[in-house]
Amino acid sequence: MSKLIYKYYSPTGLKKNKNLSNSSRLVIEEAEKHGIVWKIIPGTQIVTLTYRGIERSYYHQIPSSTTALAKYACNNKKMTSNLLQQAGISVPRGFRVTHEQSDADLAEIFDSLEKPLVVKPGDGTWGENITLSVSTYEQYLEAIAMAFSYSTKKKYTIIVEEMFPGEEYRVLVTRDKVIGVLKRIPANVTGNGTDTIKQLIITKNAEEIRSAEGIKKTHLKIRMDKKLKENLANQALSLDSVVEDGKQIFLRKISNISQGGDAIDYTDKVHPSVNEIALTAIRTIPGLSFTGLDFMSTDITKPQTKDRYVILEINDSPGFDIHDYPYVGKNRHAAREFLYLLFPELKEQTK
User: Fold this and answer.
1) CA distance 178 to 171
2) How far apart are CA 60 and CA 36, in angstroms?
């Protein structure tokens, strides 16, 4: 698997660019099991697969069956929200904000929404530049500045929305089936009455499932950065604090695995209504064939009435390696399902 590197053209020829994502690696490993020939097109980040004379491609975690329209709709979070609303799916109430909006506009948006708020980039990834639990106007303005700093585009848009009081899940789904459901837990450690929080983080970061860059591992190490220290300070703690045995300490507010969180498989625990909502959601986006839904629920094991859940985002290029190798739980063989999406005939022949 040493060849799994994107390359770019330079004046002196092809040079290494960056490694394929772990999800992409898993697809290639699965493809090789079925005798499928693969190649990375030089100068691109496109992988082509050939099976019995049939050639299909994917880009990162986007299969060739997903259209440009679907990608555009998913990358525009407000458009996604509007499409979901029109399909009767619950989404957080919120507004788009641009650089051009006046102070009066910003104040009107702040006053019209129920606190606390979430402020995030309009097309962000990996949980970057998101601020949660915004309650004061000062925090609101700081969060807006942080969200805008995600991009240098003059016409960049950010999202301000009401924060839903539930737990966060990732639902991996095609237009035909739900592949898996994960509960995403923010970066955390559990005290043992002896070690400091810093020592607990070092121990957790040494787990086999974690790496610093997310290549070949499904979970990222916990970074001991400014945000983490601030979150500890808000709990009257520091990296030098010793926590009592069995007490869980959350190090971040956001639950992204890319920020050191844990993925816990919940596929067999969710209420059937979750699957129904997920299938409705993906079918709401024209041309979307594969997605990861950011789903929040007050109790995902019970019927999902409109006030019990919201869908935060629809991701057109979801990392699905965490479904195959969760922190806790079963392997849901998402890479195999992705391959079946590219080659439905392969699925028929393996039944």
Assistant:
1) 7
2) 18
The pLDDT-based confidence of 215 (bands split at 50, 70, 90) is: low
239 DSSP assignment? T
Question: What's the whole-model pTM score?
Answer: 0.87
- Sole residue written with tokens 């606190």: 115
Q: How many CB atoms lie within 10 A of CB 43?
A: 12
Question: Which of 344, 325, 315 lies closest to 60 in space, CA to CA?
Answer: 315
Indicate if the alpha-carbon torsion angle 253, 256, 260, 262 is positive or negative.
positive
Residue 1 banded pLDDT, cuts 50, 70, 90: very low
If phi over 0 gives left and psi between -120 and 50 gives alpha, with beta otherwise, what is residue 88? left
Domain boundaries, the chain: 5-65, 93-163, 192-249
What is the CB neighbour count within 10 angstroms for residue 315? 20
Alpha-carbon dihedral angle through residues 321, 80, 134, 93, given to the nearest 10 degrees: -130
- Distance in Å from the first CA to the final CA of the chain: 28
Buried b (16+ CB within 10 A) or exposed e, 137-157: eebbbebbebbbebbeeeebb
SS3 content of the chain, % helix, strand, coil (to 5): 30, 30, 40
Query: d(Cα 295, Cα 326) in Å, to the nearest integer?
Result: 17
- Comparing 202-216, 258-272, 290-304, 307-321, the range with the smallest average pLDDT is 202-216
219 contacts 263 by C-beta, under 8 angstroms: yes
Position 40 scores a pLDDT of 92
R_g of the chain, CA atoms, integer Å? 21
Residue in 314, 350, 343 with CA at minimum distance from that of residue 63: 343
- Domain 93-163 coded CATH 3.30.1490.20: yes
Residue 125 confidence (pLDDT): 63
DSSP characters for 163-201? Answer: PP-SEEEEEEEESS-EEEEEEEE-SEEE--SSSBHHHHH
